[in-house]
Amino acid sequence: MILPTEVPSNRTAATASRYIQTGLLFLVGAAAVILLHLPELMAAPRHNPVTLVLAHLFFLGFGTLITFGVLGQMIQVITGQPIEAGHHKETAYALLVPGILVQTAGFAVWMPWVITVGGALVVAGTFLFAVPFLAPLAKHRRNDRTALFILFALFFLMGTVLFGLLMALQLEKVWSSWLFLNGFIAHMLLGGLGWFTGITIGVSYKLIPMFTTSANLPDERVRRVFLLYNGGLVILLTGAALSWPSVGLLGAGGVLAAIVLYGLDVRTMLQRRLRKHLGAGMRQSQLAVGHLVLATLLFAGLLAGWAAGAPWVATAAAQRLLVAAGMLFALGWIGSMIAGMLAKIAPMLVWLQVYADRAGDPNLPTIGDMIDEQAVGIGGWAYQAGVVLVAGAIAAGSQLLGLAGAAILLFGVVLLALTFFWVWAPTDVPQPASAPGAPETR
Amino acid sequence: MQPWPDLAKRLELDNRGLEPPEPMARILAALKDLPEDTYLLAHNDREPMFLYPKLKALGYEYHAEVQPDDSCLIAIRKPLRNGDPR
User: Contact, A34 vs A410, CB < 8 A?
Assistant: First the structure.
């Protein structure tokens, strides 16, 4: 008998699983770094090796790998379009994972050439993964706004990793003063807003209705947020690149307005859902939007203070608030949204990979049987408590509170990761009479 | 757009309000007992993108149409062995 994972159509699902599982390991690593190196993370200046290790473990290792895994397998479902892409997913994985490890090791021991080598592997892997998606997404951009969101996000991602590599190349010797002055902010804006927030907003217009059994919102609502968000971001990037504060503020205003509208749209989608029980995963996703709005308002307040030349912006308290907002954005928004969606996506991927060919067999597990909802709930709440405590401790400058929060965060992350890994664990499902004795493999 | 087939003999399956992949599982399960001359007419909340390659691989014929409310009607049947009377 041909085992399910040996069916050619299931190979992509197996690759997607590998991306997701590796991403979860990186999340555990990032949470461990927060617990073990909290004093360095709270110390000024914050642009230090530990912060860089954490940022790349979290954003690249966890966020990007899992997003790639989901995108590679579910692009057709997300966009509703027959998009065939991701032909080089396995090679991209083989470049990305060592690239991220080498890069973070380079940051940890501060060896610029090691950072550059890792960065080059990350750039190669990212381009290899992303480029095949561009033409198909562009072809379907008029039929589906989510396709357009993903297309823009992939461009922003490629810009992010390119900027990162260019900055790594001048760690030993500055060869571009413009890059030295503007590269870091461009790298952060492209990655945090352009890639992660852009793709998450776009995709959630499809996944939230799908997983809460709610109707899709009218296309005009999605288009309005798309234009405000990406238009605002392009203007913000232009302002930052040319050191034109008023242009940058205008763009930031567009991004802020788009995020507020997106928050309202999520509320509408959830209010219109048919199934009242949200489930532990979707509750995390709901809280993620709250983190995004809170972080955005904090950033906006600090930006307004800076634009007005307010003296409090230069105080240590304001600097701590900036880092706290960054934590809410990264762990709260991106981390909660990905973890929440994974509670739905991981069992679905495994079901499609392992059981779809046997649909109708009464012995098959349901999606609900495949994930421990209670563990997702406990892990999710621990994660949320950890994020709030760590961000609060950073804002208040309290190391003790921060350590307690980091420990709770790590507990939540480990519980969530184990729960998700369990979805892939082999299960004893009786085989139909025509195919006796074959074990289930995932 | 292709015209709808004659669905005089059909089995209806309403999958609206179900979380994925339940609609796909229900459709594949229903197809197992579907008589040769009968269509399965399924109504899903959205286009079943993962289902299409499965249907092709299993040799089923299908016709899908997205409705104004973004839901999707899919008519599926086994290919007839002795010509197509439609």
Answer: yes
If one counts the domains in chain A, the total is 1
Residue A436 resides in a domain: no
Is-contact A12 A73, C-beta < 8 A?
Answer: yes
Residue of B nearest to A206 (CA): B46
State how far the Cα of A296 lies from the Cα of A126, in Å rounded to an integer.
Answer: 27
Residue A399, in any domain of the structure: yes
Show which of residues 9-38 on chain B sit within 8 Å of chain A, judged by CB atoms.
Answer: 17-22, 24-25, 27-32
Domains within chain B, CATH numbers bracketed = 10-77 (3.30.110.40)
pLDDT digits (tens, 9 = 90+) for B20-67: 888 888 898 888 888 888 899 999 988 888 888 888 888 898 999 988
Contact A213 B20 (CB under 8 A): no
Query: What residues of A are in contact with residue B53 (Cβ under 8 Å)?
Result: 9
Q: Give the helix ranges, DSSP H, for chain B.
A: 22-32, 51-58
Partners of B77 in the β-ladder: B61
DSSP string, A133-174: HHHHHHHTTTT-HHHHHHHHHHHHHHHHHHHHHHHHHTSSS-
In a domain, A437, yes or no: no
pLDDT for residue A295 is more than 90:
yes
Listed in sequence order, the residues at least 6 apart from A66 whose beta carbon sits closer than 8 Å to its beta carbon are A19, A20, A23, A24, A338, A342
Q: Pick from B15, B43, B49 the residue to mutate for testing the A interface (most A CBs within 10 Å).
A: B49
Instruction: Write down the residue that tokens 């709005």 correspond to.
Output: A293
Domain membership flag for residue A359: no
Tokens for A3, please give them: 């085992």
CATH code, A84: 1.20.210.10
Q: B63 and B1 in contact (C-beta within 8 Å)?
A: no
Mark yes or no for CB contact A210/B46 under 8 Å. Answer: yes
pTM of the model as a whole: 0.88
The pLDDT of residue B48? 86
The listed range with the strongest mean pLDDT (A80-84, A387-391, B22-26) is A387-391
Domain housing A396: 4-353+366-424
> Minimal CA–CA distance to A64: which of A35, A100, A29, A91?
A100
Taking Cα atoms as reference points, which of A263, A309, A312, A311 lies closest to residue A285?
A: A263
Distance CA A233, CA A48 (A): 27
| Residue of chain B with shortest Cα separation from A144 | B70
